[in-house]
Design brief:
Layout: E1 3-9, H1 14-21, E2 28-32, H2 54-64, E3 79-85, H3 94-108, E4 114-119, E5 128-134, H4 149-162, H5 173-181, H6 197-204, H7 210-224, H8 228-237, E6 240-244, E7 254-258, E8 261-267, H9 277-283, H10 292-304, H11 308-323, H12 330-342, H13 345-361, H14 376-416
Antiparallel strand pairs: 1-3, 2-4, 3-5, 4-5, 6-7, 7-8
Helix pairs in contact: 2-14, 3-4, 7-8, 7-10, 7-11, 8-10, 11-13, 12-13
Length: 417
């Protein structure tokens, strides 16, 4: 399960910023409601984000709103520092953690300046995020109140559940009954992929398991589709029918069945949390590098000739591409090298096998295509946005220098008195 650890800050944000980014150990930095915003500026050149001094901007906002001063005789709480730690068993990748963190920030701190810095420099090299939240509400100008730790934890657990990750439910029996009535009851299993003993025994003997077959087809459709409609269409082409499952235990789910033998059917969450309706709908973001039509055609042909080995290889390859953020063939080299540096020979071997399958079936392009505006007007707007973002960063830096100079003069005058 993911864990949120809160730490209160009472000084300039500069100290925590330098600590989190020293020696280039930050794997990535995401910014929200600053002169760069991950959603507003998604189409800009990402190199521009490197010019943003987010610590300076947070300090400036706080000072400008008078939220640096003591409150009722106590030091001002200038920022909150949250450590978001996913369950190590999930082996969450950087793209997965960034998406989960973004959802958590937007849900809880959408009116605040935030910076999310990503590390894997703990003892077990497990991905985790450091989220720094400035103390000033941008909508009201007021400083934040004490955040409710239970709300913070409940939010990250629910968001993890929606993404098919491990999560923790700590509720009373009465709350469970109320949740069940609303379709939010606890799932049967909390394992991301749930393989029964019978299925493991069949696999050990090299036999065919229709449960594993459905899981592979669902994995392929989930990784190729961008919308629920596409998802159901691809499954249909692969010979899987999908219907509404009964609300067993109060939970909404899909029922998957083989079109050629409807008696072979299973609920999504009985394949594992990642295969339940809620997790699938939360994961349907697709990849612009993957052509759903091509994926469906290859998978449908494999189903037609009953090439279950190819289906399994294809499902495994697409799952690994999603887990490691691989969007083109060129990405495999760096991911494999990273696993070898960590001494994770198993992961490196899995990636090499996925690379072979992906290349053989031509699932990904050789190199990632960099998005560019399609029209002359869009090109002009894009260039203006680049210039505006750079100008905003320069103005923020100049204003900060002015404030720092004024503070230094004030300190000198105070010492002189």
């Amino acid at each position: 399960m993911p864990v949120i650890k809160p730490i209160a800050g009472h000084t300039s944000v500069r100290g925590v910023s330098d600590y989190l980014q020293k020696d280039g150990r930050a794997l990535a930095v995401d910014l929200y409601n600053l002169s760069w915003d991950e959603e507003r500026d998604a189409e800009l050149d990402p190199d521009l984000k490197q010019d943003v001094d987010w610590a300076a901007e947070m300090d400036l906002t706080r000072i400008a709103n008078g939220n640096d001063t003591p409150w009722r005789g106590k030091r001002a709480r200038t920022y909150m520092h949250f450590i978001v730690s996913p369950d190590p068993k999930d082996k969450v990748t950087l793209p997965q953690l960034r998406e989960l963190t973004r959802a958590w920030v937007r849900e809880n701190w959408d009116d605040y300046e935030c910076a999310a810095v990503f590390h894997d420099d703990n003892a077990n090299e497990v991905m985790h995020a450091h989220v720094v939240v400035n103390n000033t509400n941008l909508a009201t100008g007021n400083r934040f109140q004490n955040p409710d730790p239970r709300k913070m934890q409940a939010s990250i657990q629910r968001l993890a559940e929606e993404r098919g990750l491990s999560f923790f439910v700590g509720v009373s029996d009465e709350e469970k009954r109320r949740s069940a009535a609303k379709g939010r009851a606890a799932p049967k299993t909390r394992q991301v992929v749930y393989v029964r003993r019978a299925e493991r025994e069949i696999a050990g003997k090299g036999g065919y398991s229709w449960v594993a077959d459905i899981r592979n087809r669902v994995t392929i459709a989930k990784r190729a589709a961008e919308t629920p409609g596409e998802y159901l269409q691809i499954l249909g082409l692969m010979g899987v029918d999908v219907s509404e499952a009964s609300r067993k235990g109060g939970r909404s789910d899909w029922l998957y069945s083989m079109a050629e033998d409807p008696s072979k059917r299973i609920r999504g969450e009985n394949l594992g949390l990642a295969y339940g309706r809620k997790a699938v709908e939360g994961a349907l973001k697709g990849s612009t590098a993957i052509d759903p039509g091509q994926i469906a055609a290859i998978a449908a042909k494999a189903v037609e000739v009953k090439d279950y080995a190819q289906l399994e290889n294809m499902a495994t390859a697409l799952e690994l591409c999603s887990r490691y953020g691989i969007r083109c063939m060129a990405d495999f080299g760096s991911r494999i090298a990273a696993m070898e540096r960590r001494g994770d020979d198993r992961a490196a071997s899995e990636l090499r096998h996925a690379e072979e399958t992906t290349e053989e079936l031509r699932l990904l392009p050789a190199k990632a295509a960099k998005a560019r505006p399609r029209t002359a007007m869009a090109q002009y707007a894009w260039q203006r946005q680049r210039a505006d973002a750079s100008a905003r960063a320069g103005e923020q830096a100049a204003r900060l220098r002015q404030i720092q100079q004024e503070q230094q003069r004030s300190d000198r005058d105070r010492r002189a008195r």
